[in-house]
Amino acid sequence: MAGIELRHKLEVNADPLTVYKAIASQTGQASWWTPDCSVEETVGSIAQFWFYERQFSFSMRIQALVPGKRVEWRCVSENDEWTDTTISFELTPKDGKTIVRLTHSGWRAVTDYQAGCNYTWSQILGRMKGYVESGKPNPYFTRSGMSV
Predict the structure, then answer these.
(1) Could you give the count of Cα atoms lying within 13 Å of 111 in the half-sphere of its Cβ?
(2) What superfamily would CATH give domain 4-134?
(3) Distances (CA, A) of 128 to 4, 29, 84
(4) Beta partners for 59?
(5) The overall pTM is greater than 0.70
(6) pLDDT value at position 1?
(7) How far apart are CA 89 and CA 119, in angstroms?
(8) pLDDT (average), residues 45-62
(9) What is the residue extent of each domain of the chain?
């Protein structure tokens, strides 16, 4: 079952460029996913996301940055199930809002870990939507663990 994909779609009450900046920038990522991150807005650079007081991390090679349209990462971290998976955010304008489609592709197998990641992505995307629409940071993770 190679090539398994996780997919999510949501509508955000903001223009595509605003949503793009929340996804592509360090300030944005720190405001809805994890404040302990290092993101350089350059294709080919490695974005770092740390969790649980830096006991766990994901490293992502930035594959594509198309302002207002697309962000794509390739996981190059030491996490066995995420390594060589691709995470893409497709942004489409619709009636003054943005449709966000997240695809996390390249999973090698359906596992309990993968199923948990699918659930977590939906929660994290809810935080992104809340941040973009309100301007108030509320990351899913804190430096020590998950936020409530």
Answers:
(1) 10
(2) START domain (3.30.530.20)
(3) 24, 8, 24
(4) 48
(5) yes
(6) 42
(7) 17
(8) 92
(9) 4-134
